[in-house]
């Protein structure tokens, strides 16, 4: 791990982040980071244990003079999103993240950084290890699998935690204090079809959409970023309607909570249309690039002729319904909040498309801060794909977090923020899946708040964490701990 990261201030925070980032920790493969965290707690001599779902809880008594303060839960999630650039050689299952300093930013070399939620977890570790930071009795709750289902939060039983206040350290703008978030649901459409032989006189192409920014499918969904799956479908729709293009395979996107950056399709057309097809596609490519020139300046769409066309393709009738269903399926912002300025209420991310060997799968993540609106959009997607003959499954549903504007801990945080920064914090709800709403189901009386350092580009290889913001965040957190209300 680069020594330059460990030399950053505050060293107690960045050293814990470097230690954590040396441990591979993909969602649903958290064995190593669970063992790492339990060993960390045990070496400190603190009460350390796993619950039934394998969340890790570490308890630390109050520092002298703070015993009369309300007990506190500090919460973050252990897993991280794994994304890398296509030309980056990296094995997330075996390698630690390779970090470097770029001005005021810490970045990773061609991969996600893991600052979401690694910086929050590192801050909690630094508090647990500290000997000179005043704080009330603490329960550190490290949940698993936040990024691909919130499994840890959903399965945390009532009665385990004793804290009265929960600080979730998993937001990404240091001037914001979050008091609410969106819920979500996974929408998956699947279908089977009988492939047919490629006609004689066909030529094959690989179409590649790449160079998109990608990003967090909640926090970045309003930015007008390109979705590789929707861009690819636009090309396939036109090629099919005008030249009888047939699809052999598509592989686009990777994770539900990441806006897809890349898509690759193998297709065929009749050789007689070859020249006209290439000309027409270039016109469409130019149009798409013009539309997205401000938000996606690095977009590339490449057509490469194959030496040999694919042997089998999707039948025309199945493809007719597929490209239309994909065009119909909503992607992006569906509705803005009527209650909070500039807050996305409901959205969808068409995250992953796989089509090959007679099998089709389309994976979406639908989010909303309004439960009925979440299901309304999910049913709209379901309808689009059922009309083409797909089986549609809803899974992984989790609730949003209803804002509590009368929170006692909110008053504490807003007062400290204004004192330290000479301006008021933005009290907001966010369009991401924080675990507070889920945890509140079993701990309804717990006062919850969420905040964190500035992180940009989460869920993409452009993820970066602000060094100056981490300093601001750490100073803020330390004073919050010293100002927790009395019981």
Parts with pLDDT < 50 across at least 5 consecutive residues: none
> Mind describing the biggest β-sheet?
9 strands, antiparallel
Per CATH, which architecture of the largest domain?
3-Layer(aba) Sandwich
Report the sheet-strand fraction. 25-35%
Mean pLDDT: 96
Assigned CATH class of the largest domain:
Alpha Beta
Radius of gyration: 24 Å
Helix content: 25-40%
End-to-end Cα distance, whole Å, is 43 Å
How many helices? The count is 12
CATH fold-level name of the largest domain:
Aminopeptidase
CATH H-level name of the largest domain... which superfamily?
A: Zn peptidases
Q: What can be said about this structure in brief?
A:
By secondary structure, the chain is of the alpha+beta class. It has helices at 3-6, 11-21, 31-43, 115-129, 151-154, 228-243, 274-291, 316-328, 371-386, 408-421, 436-442, 467-482, and strands at residues 47-50, 56-60, 72-77, 99-102, 105-108, 138-143, 165-168, 176-181, 183-192, 196-197, 202-210, 215-216, 246-252, 258-259, 263-270, 300-305, 312-313, 332-336, 344-356, 359-368, 391-398, 426-430, 447-450, 455-456, 464-466.
Describe this protein's structure.
The protein has helices at residues 3-6, 11-21, 31-43, 115-129, 151-154, 228-243, 274-291, 316-328, 371-386, 408-421, 436-442, 467-482, and strands at residues 47-50, 56-60, 72-77, 99-102, 105-108, 138-143, 165-168, 176-181, 183-192, 196-197, 202-210, 215-216, 246-252, 258-259, 263-270, 300-305, 312-313, 332-336, 344-356, 359-368, 391-398, 426-430, 447-450, 455-456, 464-466. The chain folds into two domains: 3-182 and 400-482, Zn peptidases (Aminopeptidase, 3-Layer(aba) Sandwich), CATH 3.40.630.10; 185-398, Alpha-Beta Plaits, CATH 3.30.70.360. α6 packs across α8. The longest helix has 18 residues, at 274-291. The chain starts with a helix and ends in a 5-residue tail after the last helix. With 487 residues, it is of the alpha+beta class.
């Amino acid at each position: 791990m680069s020594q330059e990261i460990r030399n950053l201030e505050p060293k107690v925070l960045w050293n814990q982040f470097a230690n954590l980032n040396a441990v591979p920790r993909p969602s649903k493969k958290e064995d190593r980071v669970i063992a790492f965290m339990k060993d960390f707690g045990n070496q400190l001599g603190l009460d350390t244990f796993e619950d039934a779902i394998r969340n890790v809880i570490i308890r630390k008594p109050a520092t002298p003079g703070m015993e009369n303060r309300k007990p506190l839960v500090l919460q973050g999630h252990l897993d991280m999103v794994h994304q890398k650039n296509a030309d980056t050689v990296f094995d997330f299952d075996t390698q630690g993240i390779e970090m470097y300093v770029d001005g005021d930013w810490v970045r990773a070399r061609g991969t996600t950084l893991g600052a979401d939620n690694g910086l929050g977890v590192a801050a909690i570790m630094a508090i647990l290890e500290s000997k000179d930071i005043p704080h009330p009795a603490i329960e550190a709750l490290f949940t698993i699998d936040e990024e691909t289902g919130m499994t840890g939060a959903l399965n945390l039983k009532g009665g385990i935690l004793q804290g009265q206040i929960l600080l979730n350290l998993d937001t990404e703008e240091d001037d914001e204090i979050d008091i609410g978030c969106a819920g979500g649901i996974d929408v998956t459409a699947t279908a089977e079809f009988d492939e047919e032989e490629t006609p004689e006189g066909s030529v094959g192409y690989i179409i590649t959409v790449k160079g998109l920014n990608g990003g967090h499918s909640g926090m970045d969904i309003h930015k007008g970023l390109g979705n590789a799956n929707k861009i690819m479908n636009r090309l396939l729709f036109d090629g099919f309607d005008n030249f009888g293009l047939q699809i052999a395979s598509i592989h686009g996107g990777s994770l539900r909570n990441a806006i897809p950056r890349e898509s690759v399709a193998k297709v065929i057309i009749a050789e007689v249309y070859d020249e006209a097809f290439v000309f027409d596609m270039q016109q469409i490519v130019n149009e798409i690039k013009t539309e997205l020139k401000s938000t996606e300046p690095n977009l590339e769409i490449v057509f490469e002729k194959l030496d040999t066309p694919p042997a089998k393709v999707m039948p025309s009738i199945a493809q007719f319904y597929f490209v239309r269903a994909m065009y119909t399926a909503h992607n992006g912002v569906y509705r803005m909040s009527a209650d909070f300025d500039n807050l996305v209420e409901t959205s969808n991310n068409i995250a992953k498309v796989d089509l090959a060997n007679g099998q089709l799968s389309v994976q979406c993540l639908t989010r909303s801060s309004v439960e009925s609106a979440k299901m309304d959009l999910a049913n709209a997607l379901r309808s689009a794909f059922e009309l083409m003959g797909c089986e549609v499954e809803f899974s992984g549903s989790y609730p949003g977090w209803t804002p509590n504007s009368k929170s006692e801990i909110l008053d504490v945080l807003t007062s400290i923020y204004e004192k330290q920064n000479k301006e008021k914090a933005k009290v907001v709800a966010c369009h991401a899946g924080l675990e507070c709403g889920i945890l509140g189901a079993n701990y309804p009386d717990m006062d919850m708040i969420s905040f964190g350092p500035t992180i940009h580009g989460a869920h993409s290889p452009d993820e970066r964490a602000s060094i100056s913001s981490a300093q601001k965040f750490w100073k803020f957190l330390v004073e919050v701990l010293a100002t927790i209300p009395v019981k």
